[in-house]
User: Fold this.
Amino acid sequence: MAERLKDNSGRLLFTRDMKKEFLLLAPQMLPTHMAMVRNAFLSEGYKMDILQTTHRAIVDEGLRHVHNDTCYPALLVIGQLIEAVKSGRHDPDKIALLITQTGGGCRASNYIHLLRKALKRAGFDNIPVVSLNLSGMEKNPGFRLTLTFLRKLIYALLYGDLLMLLANQTRPYERVPGSADSLVETWVEAITRDYLAGRMRYRKVKAQFAQIVRDFSSLPVQGEKKLRVGVVGEIYVKYAPLGNNNLEAFLRSEDVETVVPGVLDFMIFKIDNRVQDGHLYGSKLIRKIAVALFKNVLVKCQNDLIAAVKNDPKFLAPSPFSETRELVKGYVGYGNKMGEGWLLTAEMLELVHNGCAGVVCTQPFGCLPNHVSGKGMMGLIKKNHPEANIVAIDYDPGASKTNQENRIKLMLATARAREEEKSPIAKALPNIT
Ligand code: SF4
Assistant:
């Protein structure tokens, strides 16, 4: 059995032997993206599973082990991991837990410490916890984020963003119910085969962007354009069905087209913050160059994805990061970077500019940063854009799903009433943004 080794601070390490023997368990956030993140891990020789659980015991474990003034995503992520450890589904002597650290100033950097405390309280402090981060925090001999590995993770996010975007724009109109979801599955299987066969060259990834767009474009669709409703907010509650009470499924049941900004914007935002830190506080030249290069790589990948989508007029491409960034001028400074920071304000503005009839801003309990840049900015956005129809929805362990959905229904009723008011001529005109 793999020996338990600790570093000088007493932290349990994930060793090379563990890499061969242990199963890494990670919390769920975005099913399509995470399926491909798992591929990147498997192709690098790790054993890895993404937790698929969604039941109430997760919230109960979170409440039992995380202080109740901690933000809701921390409670769910830690609850899901502890529930899996205690469930008996895995051998506790052969698992390690994987969790991200953003390296920023909010709690997303500190979940890992709360998780270790929870493991200790639950009697599982012999389970190693591995940090996935870009800031060089918490090194482990059995886990290395090499450039090749990082490249594969970036591709995973790109594929995830593209499939999510195209599926969201196809599902409400599909002539064969379920065809968009089956196409997503087909592509996830094809990409999985490529990962496992080691065929992950960017030239091929880029060619696949074009093929994915063509495949979605060829799905038979019908019906008139539906109201477009955007979803923004703190990254976990924005995306995770567990965190937002299946918000996207609810919006689909309300017969609207959902618009969910991609994860890549968040990644570029995080790197852009490092560039900004250099301007505001100074940094070594070599670090400035490395950060700028990394940002350029991500921006180039995003531009390639956008170009592939723009090739087909059926689909509306996302805005490039540089344009989204410009939108917040006059609203909030670029130094506002805790949580989703200025990006949350920018995404609300982007959705309003792109003609979304409504926007749901998901706000987790206990999240100060996103209340400032989300709910806190709505007044100014509505003042400058009277057409903006944004509703902030709070998520916490005791929130009533019915109340949340009723508030969203009110926002949708306003959107529909405004649509009715538009003259037939105005309706016939395309959105000019
Ligand atoms: S952004 Fe908010 S919800 Fe997310 S980790 Fe930070 S404090 Fe918690």
Q: What stands out?
A: Residues 227 and 422 are 13 Å apart (CA to CA).
